[in-house]
Amino acid sequence: MKTEEKPDIAWRVIGGLVGLATAWAAKKLLGYAWVKATGKQPPIDTESDEVGMAEAIGYAVVMGVGMQVAQIVVNKTAKKRYLAWKALKTPAQ
């Protein structure tokens, strides 16, 4: 019978906080990039009649891909560093 591994609570907390910070920072950075690229503020309500179809889809693609890439990069980096730190703290057996 396979024993279940306990979830690492510390990593779950750190991962959650890293995820929140990453989402916030990525949204700000992507919004800034959108303004620089288009000269307009990011559309708040993409369903508004004032926002064209191309702009709404473009913004959705930029935000979706950008947020996902940021989450992957930051989470993988944070987990790698956390596991390295944890290995230093755990006595060798």
Account of the protein in words:
The protein is 72% helix and 0% strand. Helix 1 (9-38) runs antiparallel to helix 2 (53-89). The chain has helices at residues 9-38, 53-89. The chain contains 2 helices and no strands.
Task: Characterize this entry briefly.
By secondary structure, the protein is mostly helical. The protein has helices spanning 9-38, 53-89.
DSSP helix fraction: over 70%
Task: Kindly state the number of beta strands.
Answer: 0
Q: Determine the mean pLDDT.
A: 85
In this structure, how is the largest beta sheet organized?
none
**Proportion of beta-strand residues:** under 5%
Tally of individual helices: 2
Uncertain parts: none
Question: Keyphrases for this structure?
Answer:
mainly alpha
Please give the structural blueprint.
Layout (H helix, E strand, L loop, with lengths): L8 H30 L14 H37 L4
Helix pairs in contact: 1-2
